[in-house]
Amino acid sequence: MTAQFTVEAGASPCLFLQGDWTLPNYDNLTRTAAPVETQVAALDASQLTALDTAGATFLVRLLGADKLGELTPTAIGLSEERKALLLAVARAMAAQEGEPADPVWRLGDGLAKLGKNVHDTWQLTLEFLSFLGLTLVTLVRVLFTPHRWRFTALIAQMHQTGLNAVPIVVLLNFLVGAVVAFLGATVLSDFGASVYTVDLVGYAFMREMGALLAAILLAGRTASAFTAQIGSMKINEELDALKVLGLDAIELLVLPRMIALLIILPLLTFLAIIAGMVGGAVVAVATLDISVVRFIGIVQEIPLRHLLLGMSKAPFFAVMIALIGCLEGFKVGGSAQSVGEHTTSSVVQSIFVVILLDAVFALFFMEMGW
């Protein structure tokens, strides 16, 4: 049946709907419809035979979203399902119309956004410090109760975060060591000082590159895994089950991961330093005619304190990566999208904090003359 409508004038003008207000009749409605100039006060749908979203959309455009929202609850001959459909379409179209088409940037908006970002950063910092304090208090309490130590979980986390990460850490640092050696050889050869490429690679990886690259790799690989694991447990209500059983989630989930990284990251840092210098040695032997014995002899002349300074950063990086990954996992909401968002956030925060801490350490060591 062809869709049509009529308006009956009077003290309370009424809009009568007839026929099928569906998609096949939508073009006919738009061609034949005349604008409703009378202020409609009632809606009669007793002769309406069918209605879908296309017909509802046309009716919203005919009357307006607000007016249709007023008339629908008291409409004659309209089922509850059709009332719900009309109201849903009216709300959706009203929301679309309310969105600004071309937002104009103003200085005040930029300052407001900057203030919000500063406030959010401060709140994140406070949350992290609170979580750090809670973790340290739990660690101290567990240290004096050996029966609560989780050796199985600790070994499992060491295997997942450490042993499985060895190949990628070694390969990446080997390649970066080769790149640094190539760069040093290219620049220093202009001054006839190609032999100092060995010192460049040694100092770079002992003090900075070894610890930094290993920490960044774990920030991307391990922090994201921590967030996804704990976030999935929260979605599946496993954290609530632990609470009901009287178990401490910090003790069961956070401490094994943090302690595992505290043990593993210094070892991975040492492997990264060795791999980086091996990569530099391959380039030195292949392109600079420096023998392996000569390379090792130059490296041995580098003071041991540079290696110790580089290794000393690893525990701090480990704590930050582990706690940020776990904290973001506890902040996951009840959806898979939330898991993805917080996993991304944990990786970004971990890498940022690692680089920031490395810069602070570099400034501190320089000021101390180390």
Q: State the helical fraction.
A: over 70%
DSSP strand content: 5-15%
Element string (H = helix, E = strand): EEHEHHHHHHHHHHHHH
Counting structural domains, the number is 2
Largest sheet: 3 strands, mixed
User: Would you count the extended β strands for me?
Assistant: 3
- N- to C-terminal distance: 90 Å
Tally of contiguous helical segments: 14
User: What average pLDDT do the residues reach?
Assistant: 84
> Pairing-aware structural class of the strands and helices?
mainly alpha
Radius of gyration, CA atoms, in whole angstroms: 33 Å
Shape: elongated
Describe this entry's structure for a reader.
It is a single chain. This protein has 370 residues and is mostly helical. It contains 14 helices and 3 strands. The chain has a 3-stranded mixed sheet, with helices on one face. A hairpin with a 5-residue loop joins strand 1 (4-8) and strand 2. Helix 6 (151-161) runs parallel beside helix 10 (249-287) and helix 8 runs parallel beside helix 12 (304-312). It is elongated and about 105 Å long. The relative contact order is 0.09.
